Amino acid sequence: MSLLSEIDLKQLVQHIKLTAKSLGFQQIGITDVDLSQHHQDVEQWLAKNYHGEMDYLARNLELRKHPEQLHEGTQRIISVRMDYLPEDAKFAQSLSASDQAYISRYALGRDYHKLMRKRLNQLGKSINDYCQQQLNMRPFVDSAPVMERQLATKAGLGWTGKHSLIINQDAGSWFFLGELFVDLPLPIDQPVDEQCGDCVACITICPTQAIVEPYQVDARRCISYLTIEYDGIIEEELRPLMGNRIYGCDDCQLTCPWNRYAQLTQEADFAAREQLDQPTLLALFAWTEEEFLKKTEGSPIRRIGYQQWLRNIAIALGNAAYSQQAIDELSAKQGLEAVAQHHVNWAIEQQQNKAAKASRKTARLIRIIEKGLTRDA
């Protein structure tokens, strides 16, 4: 009889959950590898081209649908949750200030991928030590074709909200997900009931109406997709709706009533970097490529690259209140590639239109005042 067969799996699960908590995971759940109940939904979503240009989602569909093929021998998946909401996040304050940049709360601090993967590796080592043998395990954090949200719901971490994100009744939705694939027949956790009810706040507030129906997001209209995943020319009709959001969008989470229960992160790495804490659009647009690379080192923002960064800020500047400085800075920017230049030109035009409108308004006021003075005379 092997040592593993002598281990009480229920006690092992308790060890895993206690260890996970000590490593900074707020919650873990365990599920099997059967995702057949989600296959049709994923296939239909892809058939509607809601994934935009994220071709990788369709390329590895079979691996997504069958986790045991992604990592051979997998019997169970340990799904983990780590809160990321930084202290003094200021939530939507910068959305109302058109000269400031709004950056999604998850991207204000250090990139979560390496941190969570390291912790998952540590969790795996702890399991090996407990079992006194080398088991077949592999961690994943947004790094492979894994249906992480579907796995999280099966593992009982929460339910899928109408915005398609996972909601936990005790923690809202401000958290990252990660997985540890294991070749152990661990007892599994049960899913929880959905508790969104008749609420449609996330659907109503979406600036671009990307939530086309409950649980269905058309990425091609989603500001997070447009500012992060998509590097081309953004449709002109969508640009004004993006406001000052230059990296991601949190509106659907900001309005969700379950986020009143959200917990602040205990991870110092997720705290907002000084240069990203309520910065002005012009200050960020003034960065050189060297400054961009230096100031976003270790940040998820860095992966979009300097030109896309400038494209996003240019759109926000076009949506901002009139500023002659904005026109001057946009006009003076050098070294732009075609896509970024296209959006800079659009932003200049928007600013010039606002200047002309302001001049016409001023002229009308002057005429009204002059007429009033003439009558009084």
From TrEMBL:
Binding sites annotated in the UniProt record for [4Fe-4S] cluster 2: 206, 222, 249, 252
Gene3D superfamilies, A to Z: 3.30.70.20
Cofactor binding notes: Binds 2 [4Fe-4S] clusters per monomer.
InterPro entries: 4Fe4S_Fe-S-bd, 4Fe4S_Fe_S_CS, QueG, QueG_DUF1730
Location of the protein in the cell: Cytoplasm
PROSITE patterns registered for this protein in UniProt: 4FE4S_FER_1 (PS00198), 4FE4S_FER_2 (PS51379)
Pathway(s) where this gene product acts: tRNA modification; tRNA-queuosine biosynthesis
GO cellular component terms, semicolon-separated: cytoplasm
NCBIfam families named among the record's database cross-references: tRNA epoxyqueuosine(34) reductase QueG
Name under which the protein is recorded: Epoxyqueuosine reductase
The encoding gene: queG
